[in-house]
Every structure is written in structure tokens, then in C-alpha cells.
């Protein structure tokens, strides 16, 4: 495929490293130097030596890489690829909450803007949210912005009073318990794996709940031969690699994050060729956001 060769050539010429999230199209995952979940991508970002990092994912992921690597050129092929959940919180409202409730610790999911991270005490991802909330000192926690991941954490961390921001992921929220119930009847031997961004009624029907990397690990170790996959179907590309003989059933046919899929091969080539679109975060915001991310990474 010509475009793949072009990307490979441009990548070499520009000395760029490509990072991709598991929700990218399979062909993009395969051209990336590193594929991971939000936590793995954030960790990887600090180790990279190349001067240019191209993030194939949604905007907050590229912003996180930039915050952790202020001296590097961080590119995103299409800056309008934003996370719908991250857009459900604005800094002014969070500021107002903090002013009214100074006794709350603000724990913010990385699916958020740099400005919101900068107002937070600590960040978390879906892979470590329980650990992060358990580790905070105060009893009162505001979990921002995902009410579903927040309620998943609250089910497990009983010694905190947790309030949730009213945000959610429309892609995961679209999966209903009714739909999952029908699939479970149709495939009684299949194991149900879901992301914690799914609603509580969906999570109740699952055999395993975890972040994307945790789902991959779990499926690899499982002795089942079929799986109902309750998260973005890009992950199935990796699941097929770790368990080629298994059957994977997307929990609904169009379980696709359209935002993630705004990253396409032509835009990746354009990004490398023209050094666009460069992610910038103002120094003051980046400094504060970095502290919240680093508190998470230190755990
Ligand atoms: P992970 O933390 O599992 O990578 O998920 C990120 C995300 O955007 C889920 O919708
Ligand atoms: Fe955001 Fe949902 Fe897409 Fe994840 S799947 S990037 S939470 S909109």
C-alpha cells in the first residue's frame, strides 16, 4: 500500500515516533511504534528520545504527551479528534466547585483537558482509578468527569465519600443492559468483558471489567473460546493477536469511537510531511497539569 510506504519514509526522514491507542483502526495500530492504553501511553511518552512524537488518538492523549515532554514536538494528525467525555467538563464549573467545597480532593480521569487537569489534585486512568482514589488522604473525593468510572471506583473504595461529575462516554453509554442480555442468551458460552466506562447496569452483567490493557491481558489468560467485547472495537485487533483461535463479538455492531477514527492514514502522512498539528499547552497550565499527572505516575 503506497500510503503505508509513504508514512514509513516520512517517519524515518523526520525521526518521529508514532504512538497509538487501542481504539485506532488496526492498520494504524500496526504502523505505530508503540500501542497502548491511556496509562501505558503516558508512561511510554516519558521514555521517548525522538524529537517528534505523533499521537494517534484523541486530543487529550496528545496533550498529556506534550505536558510530560514540554521540549518535544508533539503532533496530532487531526486536532478535532476530541474526547466527548472530556468535553463534558469546563474549568469554570470545576473552579466554582472547588471554591465552595475546599475539603474535596479532586481526582480527574486523564480523559480531560489540560486546564481541568491543572485544577486537579491527582489524575487517574481506567487502569489505576481504584488505586489512585484509595491513596488520597482526605475522605471526600470529587471524581471528574466520568460518573460511570466514578461509580465503579465507589463500588470498591468503601472508605471514601465520592461525588461524581455528570460526565460519561456516549460510545460506552450506548451499550444497554437489555442489548447485552440478548447477546448473553445468544452466546451463552462467551465471556463478557467490558470497560468501566460502561453503565453500572451493563457492568453488573459482565464477567470481567477492566481498562483496555487489562481486558487484553485477561483475554490472553482466559480459557474461553469466545468473548463479548464491551468496548471500542479497535481493541479486537489486539485481542485477535493474543488469541487468534477465539471468536470476538462486539457488544454492538457500531461500537466505534468516531472521534478516535478521525485519525486516518492520509492525515497521518500529512501530519508528518507538514509537521502539523502541533499540540501546545501554555506553560502555567502545563506545570500544574503535570503535577497532577506525575502524582498518578508516582503511585
Ligand atoms: P483506556 O484507559 O482503557 O485506555 O481507555 C481510554 C478511553 O478513552 C476509554 O474510552
Ligand atoms: Fe472519549 Fe469515549 Fe472516545 Fe474514549 S471512547 S476517547 S471516552 S469519546
TrEMBL record:
Gene3D superfamilies: NadA-like. InterPro entries: NadA (IPR003473), NadA_sf (IPR036094), Quinolinate_synth_type2 (IPR023066). Transmembrane segments: none annotated. SUPFAM superfamilies: NadA-like (SSF142754). Pathway: Cofactor biosynthesis; NAD(+) biosynthesis; quinolinate from iminoaspartate: step 1/1. GO terms for cellular component: cytosol. GO terms for biological process: 'de novo' NAD+ biosynthetic process from L-aspartate. Binds 1 [4Fe-4S] cluster per subunit. It catalyses: iminosuccinate + dihydroxyacetone phosphate = quinolinate + phosphate + 2 H2O + H(+). [4Fe-4S] cluster binds at residues 83, 169, 257. Its main location: cytoplasm. It is an enzyme of class 2 (transferase). Its EC number is 2.5.1.72. Keywords: 4Fe-4S, Cytoplasm, Iron, Iron-sulfur, Metal-binding, Pyridine nucleotide biosynthesis, Transferase. Its cofactor is [4Fe-4S] cluster. Iminosuccinate binds at residues 21, 38, 109-111, 126, 195-197, 212. One of its GO terms (molecular function) is 4 iron, 4 sulfur cluster binding. It is found in: Cytoplasm. Belongs to the quinolinate synthase family. Type 2 subfamily. Catalyzes the condensation of iminoaspartate with dihydroxyacetone phosphate to form quinolinate. This is Quinolinate synthase. It comes from Desulfurobacterium indicum. The gene is nadA.
